[in-house]
Design a protein that fits this description.
Length: about 120
């Protein structure tokens, strides 16, 4: 790691690096994956609590380990309660047998109709 040229840039060696304390996670460049994709595709239709759950549910360093608190703003800290609440349904809801799709379809269809238009701007 000592050979990494970034280790010689003083700005990168501070707690906040290139960011300002309390700047908010929406100002932080993070790796792009399925979280960001679904947030960008579906987020505009959903309440802010759901947007946070989608965007940050894999950001375990923050919601499980408590890292990056110094970059969070008040909204991030408030919304992360929803990210933490979602976590058991994300990771620990897998089952050995597939669900009964027909039984679940009306429940999910109602939720989809509540939040999404018939045609999505994808």
């Amino acid at each position: 790691f000592a050979d990494n040229p970034d280790s010689k840039v003083p700005e990168y060696s501070t707690e906040c690096g290139i960011y300002q304390a309390g700047c908010g996670l929406d100002q932080v460049t993070m790796s792009w994956g399925h979280d960001e994709y679904i947030y960008l595709a579906a987020g505009k239709y959903l309440p802010i609590e759901a947007q946070y759950m989608l965007r940050y549910h894999s950001f375990y360093a923050a919601h499980r380990e408590g890292a990056y608190q110094h970059l969070m703003n008040d909204q991030d800290r408030e919304m992360f309660q929803w990210v933490k609440a979602f976590n058991p349904y994300d990771l620990y809801s897998k089952a050995d047998h597939p669900p009964d799709v027909e039984a679940l379809k009306p429940i999910y269809a109602e939720m989809i109709a509540r939040y999404f238009p018939a045609t999505l701007a994808w």
